[in-house]
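Homework help board

Subject: predicted structure for assignment chain

Our instructor gave us this sequence and asked us to write out the predicted structure in token form, then describe one feature. I got the tokens but I'm not sure how to describe them. Can anyone check?
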Amino acid sequence: MASASAAAGAVPLPDEERPALHTRNRPLLAFGVMAATIMQILDTTIANVAVPHMQAALGATADTITWVLTSYIIASAVALPLTGWLSDRFGSRNLFLVGVFGFVAASMLCGLATSLNQMVAFRLLQGVMGAFIMPLSQTVMMDINPKSRQASAMAIWGMGVMIGPILGPVIGGWLTEYYNWRWCFYVNVPIGIGCFAILWALLPTREQSIRRFDIFGFAMLAIALSSFQLMLDRGQTMDWFSSWEVRIEAIVMVSAAWMFGIHMATAREPMFDRHIFANRNLMMGMLFMAVNGMLMTATLALLPPLLQGLYGYPVLTTGVLLMPRGVGILISMFVTSRLIARGMDPRILVALGLIVAAQSLHQMSGWSPEMGSTPFIVSGLVQGLGMGLVFMPLNLLAFATLPPKYRTDGSSLLTLFRSIGGSAGISLVTVMLARNVQVNHMELGGKVTGYSISSVDPGMASALGSAGETVTAMLDAAVNQQALMIAYLDDFKLMMFLTLAALPLVMLLQRPPKQPAAGKDEDMHVAFD
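My token output:
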């Protein structure tokens, strides 16, 4: 009786407190969505540490084994723009379920692969299926939460996205060392089965709509993205534009991108609705996502070889030293969600995050070969705080003025630009590292003479014969170490300047309309209430 009367007297929720999609058990669904997201994100980095072991098991060379990583990146980049159209055509629920099932199946096949050709084919399939998970998971987290709780939902989603790449090398190194490299793929199977069961039981679907498939637009975009990824992957090996292969890839990329842009501006029914690109916040969000992806991915690409090669840390210790970034991300996203819920301008948080991230890179540019682990931990924590301050408010700003029907397309574009920024960042710092090592070695080596090193007499070294050669080799090794260290520091300075260069762009973002407060107990747990 009491419950019936209470239900009868219940006040209907205002429109802003009604989520776009309803589900019977939001906490469990959010858990399943986040587990699927983390599973997919982990696979972008978990296999990296196992590449040398794969090379021996699959009979591949040092050049061909890189296709295990490249194939996944290219497939994911090409499939990402399709997410919005497939979601509208076949339903977001069906596409999410197919993505998770296909990703788990492809992971199992990768673990069973016995040749390089098989591994590359299965990684292509894994990349395609994984591409659908990321934008759909972000869309679902926004759709099942009312506007007042979307800041907290984005904080939870952002934690999985940002922490995944940091945990990947740690988990991959541990599985490879204590079990087998194949477990880097097998580990997805039990997680994926649990995610699939939750999504099957609870995931609602968005309204379907029939959209004509823009074959020409997709073909041009796919060719541009594939050429871009191939150019970045092969550039360092082929000495960049001194190679005709890289020149052709660059020409094809520019030509296809130009035709895609013209087609988008003139076609009757282009691949993406042109209204999306008229949204200033989404466009700025895409640019900032590229910067964020460059900052995070390039840093994670530089630090493991630095810690292992110059400082001599083992794989697992390297992973542990990288984990403070995850702690910083957790702290900043927790604080950020509460500040936004209390009405703070997200643009201020994005600007503050860029400044904090630049400060961490400034700290890293002061490292020396003879130091303990404390600077790695402190700078990592500071950088995590900065990246968390940027990522979550940026996602909120990007979707603040975007109609809900464009969320899946918008999410896929944000993810695509973060991936492009990450690939470009890795290529940039790798090229600068190799070039600066050569320049630094020449400059330092030219200053090493018998007069600059009082403890080594060149005449004595010559008289010592083979022992003199040993002394010379030791000097050359010391010069190489210093040249490499300076090159790493130059990379950190470059990323610091790029981060600061993005700071004025914050002024181009529009502040979202004020949302109703979720209550005095607002916290990140609201997305799971």
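Reply (TA_rk): Your tokens look well-formed. For the description, you could write something like this. The first helix runs from residue 2 to 8. That's the kind of observation they're looking for.
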